[in-house]
Each structure stands twice: as structure tokens, then as C-alpha cells.
Amino acid sequence: MKNNIISSKIMLLLLLLPLITSCHGSYHDYTDALTKSILFFEGQRSGYLPQDQRMNWRGHSGLGDGWTVNVDLTGGYYDAGDNVKFNFPMAFTTTLLAWSVIEFGENMPPSELRNALVAIRWSTDYLLKTVSQPNRIFVQVGDPVLDHNCWERPEDMDTARTVYTVDAPNPASDVAGETAAAFAAASMAFRSSDPGYAETLLRTSTRVFDFADRNRGAYSDNSNIRDGVCPYYCDFDGYQDELLWGAAWLRRATQGDNYLSYIQENRQILGADDNTNEFGWDNKHAGLSVLVSKEVLDGSMYSLQSYKTSADSFMCTLIPESSSSHIEYSPGGLIYKPGGSNLQHATTITFLLLVYANYLEKSSQILNCGTLSVGPSMLRKIGKRQVDYILGDNPKGMSYMVGYSNYYPQKIHHRGSSVPSIKDHPQVIACKEGSTYFNSSQPNPNVLVGAIVGGPGEDDAYDDSRDEFRKSEPTTYINAPFVGALAYFSANPNIN
To answer: Where does the Glycoside hydrolase family domain start and stop, copy by copy (predicted)?
Structure first.
């Protein structure tokens, strides 16, 4: 009898083995990836690092930021592999981190929700400093030309920490509008855990949005700062989308009729329907459409129908079977858009797919893409394909998240990661002395865990090289939307 039972168990195991093997082949630990995607932000910190700093190869940096203008501008994040604080992408990063918590915070383990809020606050504390003076916004710290001529740790940097400032009535609608959005979104993220801080953020958001709306124009059009912000984070796509974006977030956070009127009445004036197939630090159109469409899908605000129409149209472009599909995919299945740092598109679009899927599901609606009916599950499958590609299901079998899996980029374009840690090498490594490490064929000595690099090109090719900065440089705004996507799949790993 005992032998029969053993034989039955062996037979069952043999029957299940192909299934187990196939599942294991595409298995990902989304919770582990989520933990690492949030940890990455600790490696990008500027300022005085706290005692609970986990990325312990980093040290204090930028402690004199703002002294030239008699303002404390310490803190915030370095946006990528250099040592400049660019507020435009930093504010967008903050908005997307906060949106990740708003939509998917309930999917996060409690410890990671806390870590995500800490990551948001590291930025909002800094951004509050940048708008602390009336009719003025500090938009950047650090001379990027001088900074990019050096390869040195942030702890050693000796280049000019120039402060770039916009005073009314000069325009800064883009940076101020995005900063207002960041504060409004973050106020919602902190509402239950720290209502006092949430109120400060919301109050500041209304003031900063007013500054953005009254002083219309692109910040990079100001001649006194243009050479410092361009071509790095110039406003290439216009400032109008940030005004609608900021107002939309204030409407979401306050439910105020004044902001509802703003996004209704200014939709055409500010070009809400223009170029809706983009979403990133410079172009908010697709994200704006998805954000506002929630009110329509909830069944209460049909005056905003045009935003939902734009959101539907955007979603349909992502579906290969749809007649309106025109998003490119690489041979391996990665969303591809021309230009550098392609994974910024893959992560933001994935985030929107998952957010919109939730909105559709909660309202029991589907999407009509011509003759094709699309439900939430199809949007999630497309999103999951992007997440899995980034985590290693791609032609190279490489995880594009540093520190996730056993095969990931070793030579990322990142100063702090590639130069020996100040903990191991306390002596100063001067501006040009870091070139030795940039040119080295060795892996970076410090692992920037959780960093998502710019990623492969349209042919799925990736060379692990610091020289190839468009592919090998991580950025905060690649990671931020991925936090939300990973939170969703950590709670729902078995969607196929």
C-alpha cells in the first residue's frame, strides 16, 4: 500500500513537472523588486543622510547648497548619474511616486509603504524650500556644464553649486505647475499618516499653482537660466500641459469646483488634446487624460468626457491588435520610442495601463478600440509584459534593474556607483581623477540596488558600458512609476 502511495506521488510530480518548470521560467519576485525600486532613491539622496540610511556606501553631500543666495537648499535628489539637482524632473518623480502610493499603496507591504512615503518626503521637504519665498522659485542647483566635465562622487564635488532662480513676473509655469502637482499628489499620499504635513503640502500647492498660472511661459525661456537648464531639462513640449496637470491634481486633492472649472474651460486653450501619446517629465498629456478620466468613469462628471476620450485613444494605440495601434515594440516585446533612455517610456506607460485598468474595473466598463473590445485584463497583460521584460524576460536574459536577479548591468553610468565609496577611500578623488574609474573595464564597486538603467534600443541590444549613457544611466523618473507597477504585481503576481 505504501509503495502504491509513493508511486502515485511520483506520477503526480512527473505530471506537474512541466507546469512547474514553465512557471519557474517566467517567475519574478515582484515584492523583492518593489523593495529594491524604492531603495534606489536612497542612493540618489543629496544632503545630510540620516542614521537609518540603508545605501551605506553613500555619504553626506551638497551641504552648502543655497548658501550663495542665503537659503537652505540642501536635500532632494540627484536625478541621474550626475550631481545636479534639476527640479523639473525631480518634481515629476515626486508626483509619480505619490501617485504610485495613491493608486497602489494598499498593495504594498506595510514596510514598503513606509519606505515609499520616506522617499516622497525626501523630495517634498526639499521642494518646499525651493518655493519658500513669495513670487520666487528656485529651479535648479548645480552648474551642469562644470559638473559634466568631472567624474567625481557627490561627496567630493567641488564644482559651482550655482542656484538658478525665477522671479515673477518671469515665467516658470512648467516647473511650478509640476511642483504644485507634486505637492497636491503627496498631500493625498500623506493624508492618513501625517495630516498636518499633508495640509502644509496642499496649502503650498495652491500658492505655487497660482504662481505658475499668473506667470505663464516656459522656465527655459528665461535668458538668465537658459544655459544652465538646456539642453538637459529644457521645456521642449511647452508649459501648457503642466498647468492642466497641476490643476487636475489640485482638483483630485481638494475636489474644488474652481479647479474643475479650470480643467474644463482651459482644455482647448491649453491644448489638452495635443500630442496625447506621450507621458514623461516633459509631456504630461497621456497622464493628464488618465488622471481626469477617473471622474468620468466614476460616473459623476461627463463635462470631462473629452479627457476620457483621449485616455481611451491612448490605450488603444498600445494594443497591437487594435486598428489604431501605432506604438512601436522591439522584437522582444519592449515598448519603444525614439530618443535615449527608452525605459522611461516603458515604465510610465506601464503605470498608466495599470491605473486605467483599475479605473475601468471599478466602474465595470470596457474600452472600445474600433471593433476590438478591451477589458482591464488585457491592459494588465500588456503592462505585465513590460515589467517582466525589464526584470529579465528579454532576448538578453538580463534584468535592467541593478541588483535584481543574477544578471544585471555592472557598469552603469553613475558617478557615485563607479567611484570607490568615501567609506572605503576617504581621501578626496578630484574632478579629473575619477576618469580612471569611468574608463575602467571593471564592474562598479558600489551596487546602486534597484536602479533601472536607460535600457536597450529598438533591437533589444544592450552593451554594458558607462560610455553608452543613453542606455546605462539610471534616472529617478524611470524608477518612480515602476514603484506603482511593482506594487500592483507584488499583490497580483499570477496575471497571465
So the answer is: 30-486
Give bridge partners of residue 45 from the DSSP assignment: 77
pLDDT in tens, 19-66: 333 333 458 999 999 999 999 999 999 999 999 999 999 999 999 999
Q: Which amino acid is at 364?
A: S
Say if CB 34 and CB 487 are below 8 A apart.
Answer: yes
Please name which of 450, 296, 307 lies closest in space to residue 360, comparing C-alpha atoms.
296
Spatial neighbors of 408 by CB under 8 A, at least 6 apart, are 398, 399, 400, 401, 402
Number of H helices, E strands in the chain: 18, 7
Phi, psi of 163 (to 5 degrees): -105, 125
- How many residues would you count in the chain? 496
163-167, strands of its sheet edge to edge: 85-86, 136-141, 163-167
Q: Give the other-Cβ count within 10 Å of 426's Cβ.
A: 10
DSSP H or E segment with residue 462: none
Return the C-alpha cell found at 208: 505655487
Element (H, E) at 272: none
Residues 6+ apart with CB under 8 A from 234: 220
Three-class DSSP labels, 47-75: ECCCCCCCCCCCCCECCCCCHHHCCCCCC
Report d(CA 308, CA 293) in Å as an integer.
4
Cis ω for the linkage preceding 395 (within 30 of 0)? no
Q: Helix (H, G, I), strand (E, B), or coil: what is residue 308? A: helix
Residue 211 to residues 97, 168, 234, Cα–Cα distance (Å): 24, 8, 19
Q: Is 461 helix (H, G, I), strand (E, B) or coil?
A: coil
Here the cell at position 381 is 497583460
Give bridge partners of residue 85 from the DSSP assignment.
141
Task: Say what angle helices 240-254 and 257-265 make with each other, to 10 degrees.
Answer: 150
Q: What is the pLDDT of residues 335-389, one digit of tens each?
A: 998 888 999 999 999 999 999 999 999 999 999 998 999 999 999 999 999 999 9
**pTM of the predicted structure, to 2 decimals:** 0.94
Cα–Cα distance, 185 to 100 (Å, whole number): 10
List the catalytic residues: 413, 464, 473
- Cα→Cα distances 170→84, 134, 207, Å: 23, 13, 16
CB-based contact 296:289 (threshold 8 Å):
no
